[in-house]
Every structure is written in structure tokens, then in C-alpha cells.
Amino acid sequence: MAQFPQDFAWGFATASYQIEGSASTGGRGPSIWDTFCQLPGKIRDGSSGEVATDSYRLWKEDVALLKSYNVNAYRFSISWSRLIPLGGRDDPVNPEGIAFYRSLIKELLTNGITPYVTLYHWDLPQGLHDRYGGWLNKEEIVKDYVNYAKLCFDSFGDLVKNWITHNEPWVISCLGYQKGIFAPGHKSNTEPWIVAHNAILAHAYAVKLYREQFKPIQGGQIGITLDCHWQMPYDDSPENIEAAKRGIDFKLGKIPSHDPIYKGYYPERVKQIIGDRLPVFTEEEIAVVKGSSDFFGLNTYTSQLVREGGTDETNGYTTVGHTRPDGTQLGTIGAKNICVVSIAHPPGFRSLLNYLWKTYQKPIYVTENGFAVKNEHQMSLAEALRDQDRIEYFEGYANAMLQAVTEDDVPVHGYFGWTAVQCLNHLMNTHRRADGYEARFGVTYVDYATQKRYPKESALFLSKWFPEHIKT
Ligand code: NOJ
Questions:
Q1: Is the confidence at residue 419, as pLDDT, over 90?
Q2: Which one, 47, 57, 241, 376, has the greatest CB density within 10 A?
Q3: How many domains, the chain?
């Protein structure tokens, strides 16, 4: 039987605001998500991360759950405002926050689970947004982010060897500052490019610091996680073939992230459309940005059929869908959610892994992948636990990844289902950003009234499938 190498990492991923709760306790300061959730109409079902899956209190139980799922790795994010409540380099540090994450990390290690830690999963301290405009202010935010990163390396780096600077810069910039549907809710056609630029600089300078001051002693790796879905032409017309290429270029290069990081420049197709709104890196900056990721962190949920035309410049004026010209669907379709609709189309995943390896030549970690079953939030507990569509999705994707590794020689080093805790999206049903609790990812059902966790059948499937397919 084909198997992944012995050191293949597998587990689940989560994000602080989506699972922790205890938003106003333990010394935590507010983030832009706390503020955003209070704006009427911003979250579909009116919920917030005030309680979420209560994982700040139930962390030991969650680690035990992970252990029962036979994982060997867990990806979670640190809440910046739990460590530095006001966020800035001259602001006080919260010792309770440090103690919380150290306990969590130690508990994971005691249980044989390797931590993969994301520094920034969208929850900017509100203090920095109020003080100087947060991500819009290059001079300040880069320094404050690097200071926060240093605090994390100092406080946890003896135990943590896998760092991810940002989760999905496209979401930080486009959903937060162009479409206005994520915190802080701005609508602008210039700000997203500035924000993305500054986020990438913050990433790059944190990596520089890690490589110069921490890696030689701590010996870990550091990179960034980007979101990308496989894009195929809708049909074989030349304009749709070109549109699919442009779609991928925009997905991978539009935010000054992927191509500058891996290649040192923006794709031509992107420059042509965004023009002088795309900030220019100085010589010194691009020297720090280029090569600033040890791996390609990939969040991916679907495949898309691309057609020429459309009104959204952030897609490079393309239109995406999942219905083929003959009316058939690419695969089983998941619940609609604000980021993306998951579609069970494993061949697209295999093609994407091949494309990324050929293009960027970096080992790949699939830092998120998962499926929200349609109408799961309206199901009874018993119905929700029988999540056959999710199993079909995971089985297809896991096998496609295995083929990419064993037949195509693509170096995928790890895989994380979304979420541990719905959200615990994939491990459980966590608080989902602007969708509130409606689009339910996650392999563990959470009864939000009692916070009791119930493994879904997909949890049992994955906890058997991965150990069987990793060499011992
Ligand atoms: C992307 C994000 O990283 C995560 O926060 C979100 O909940 C999932 N994917 C599902 O949309």
C-alpha cells in the first residue's frame, strides 16, 4: 500500500478567535474582530467569539480529543492581544497569556503532538488599529509585528519548531479592506494593496529576525500560509484558457505575497491591472522579502472553473463557478460560506499540488483543507454525526495528496484538516468568521449550549486513514 514518509505531519488546524472564547478574561485585550462582531449585520447569525468553543478553558479536553484522533501535529494561532493586550512594542505584556500558551504547548508535546503555530490569523489588537490605523501604517505595524513575533520566539521557541507568520494575507487585505466583509470592514480600492504590502513586510522582517537570532539556537522552520484553489478553464476556448491562467496569477500573486516572496516580483498580469496602486518594494525590502518562506503553506478547499470577464479586479476580471458546460457539477458541493464553497474535486487538488511544486520549488504543508456539510447547523445531533459528504471529501483529497506524493514526487510534508473545534471547524464546529456558526466545518460536533464535544464519523475516518497511510 502507498504510504507517506514516516515524518509526515497530520492533524487539525484552528485559529484563536474562532475557538478560544474568554475574549474579555485572562488579561486579553480586544482585537478588531471583537469590535467587528459588535457591528449590527456584520455576522450572519449575530454571533461573536466571546465564547466560541470555549477552548481557552477547555484546552486540556481539546488536546485529549486530538490525541484520541491519533494526530501527530496540531496547528493553532496565538492571539496577539492575549500576549500584548494593546499590541505595541512599548505596551505591557500579559503573563497570563504567555502561561496559557506554554501550558497548551507542553500538553501537546506530552501527548506526542507537534505544535505548528500561526502568529497572525486576522485578529489585530484593536489598540493598534485605534492608535495608528493598524495594517495601513507601514512604519509602525512592521515594528510592532516584529516585536510581537520576537516575544513568541522568546517565550515558546524552545518548544515550538514550526512557525507560520500569517494566515491568508488575501483575506486580511481583500476581505478586510476592499470588500469590507471581514474586520475591520473597510471598502477601498487602494487600501488592500497597502495592507497586503505591509503584512508581507511584517512577515519578512519577522522571518529575518527568526533566521538571524533564533533559528541558529532553536533550529526551527518558518513560513507563510496562503490560500489558493485550483482553477481550470471553463472550456477550451482561448479566452477562458487565458482567464484561468490569470485567475491563478491573481490568486497566487495579486496580494504582494506569493510571487514576491518566492520569486521576488509580481506577476505581469497583476501589474497590468493594478498599476500604480501596487506599492513598490525598495531594493532593501525586496531583498528581505524574496526567499522569506521555508515552505509553501497552503489552505485549499475547492477547484473552480474559470471564465473570461467579470467585475472583480481582485480576481483579475474573471468569473469562477463549478458547473461544467454540460450542466454537471465538479463534485459534491458544501455549504456556502463567505470565504469559499468546498467542492469534492480531488483531481484539482492533485493538480494544484503539482503546480505549486513546479512553480515555487518549496516543500508544501497543507495547512488547511476541509468541508462544511450543507445545512448541518439545522440537523439533529445524530444526523450531523453521520457526515458522509465530509468523509467523501476527505477520502478523495487524502488519496489525491498521497498520489501527488508517491506518484508525482511532490514533497508534501504535512496535512491539517480544518478544523479542530467547529471551527473547531474541522476538528469541531467553531465560530466561523462572518458566517457565525452557520457554515459548519469540523470533524467534531460542538453542542454550543453545553460545550460538549461529539466526534463525527469523519473524525473516526481520518483518525484511522492517516495512521494507516504513514510509514511506521
Ligand atoms: C480559511 C481560514 O483560515 C479559516 O479561518 C476559515 O474558518 C476557514 N478557511 C473556512 O472558511
A1: no
A2: 376
A3: 1
